Amino acid sequence: MSLEGKVAIVTGGGTGIGRGIANVLASRGAKLLLVQRRLEPAALAAAELGVSRAEAMSADISDPGAAAAIVERAVEHFGRADILVNNASLTGKPAVGGALTSDPAHVDAVVDINLKGTFYCSQAMARRLVADGRPGSIVHISSVGGYAAQEQAALYCATKAAQISLARSLALELAPYGIRVNCVAPGDIRTGASENIVDELKESGSSGKYLRITPLGRRGSPEEVGAAVAFLVSDEASFITGATLLVDGGFLAY
């Protein structure tokens, strides 16, 4: 599953799952543009991967103009863009909010980043690929929350379900151009943002009665999500589009 010669954009690529994805893609030979709202973590991750291998950029993906600028930055710096990983999302404590208490600012923040940002970045990437006449691959990082409801996370779950639906629809529309669009739905992955998510949900009013147990008996790693992404964007997955790959340790198996 070599990615030599490919250039990948990973939003939220400086921390958590995004950083794991970046590590795996780099290990397969891809060059990377790591995009983060805060430049510092992306710059640190890029430096550790190597200046010839990775570049960092600060951007707000909920801004359509910024989404277009992200793709152009990759092309300007590396000469091309082949892969987009829509990983940036509001998750963990910032995404938690009860249906009775979420105010308009919280609603806008979750929808703007998780759904609109995913669409704007996908649109910008697709436009560039079509203009260049080249195939490419887009992967959304959704969640098991797109399938299984979670207390105090209605908006989050709705946007994650929307990412799955968006991947299917974009896959249909972009297939004639050789652009594949897929999803990865991680389960319980150990990151800084999710380290204390169960306690945070309970503090927000969750009863805790509807929490599932991962059959494999452990939390997943960001690199395990990265391995799934690396497969989907590789030539090994050349006949896969509109699909969602569960990386959840069996979380949704029962």
The portion of residues forming beta strands comes to: 5-15%
Helicity level: 40-55%
Rounded to the nearest angstrom, the radius of gyration is 17 Å
Shape: globular
Task: List the secondary-structure elements in sequence, H or E.
Answer: EHEHEHEHEHEHHE
Termini separation: 31 Å
Biggest beta sheet attributes = 7 strands, parallel
Number of strands: 7
Q: Order of strands side by side in the largest beta sheet?
A: 3-2-1-4-5-6-7
Helix vs. strand class: alpha/beta
Mean pLDDT: 94
> What is the helix tally?
7
Low-confidence stretches: none
Structural account:
This protein has 254 residues and is of the alpha/beta class. Helix content is 42%, strand content 15%. It is built from 7 helices and 7 strands; from the N terminus they run βαβαβαβαβαβααβ. Helix 5 links the parallel strand 5 and strand 6 (179-186).
Short description:
This protein is 42% helix and 15% strand.
Key words describing this protein structure:
single chain; 254 residues; alpha/beta; 7 helices; globular
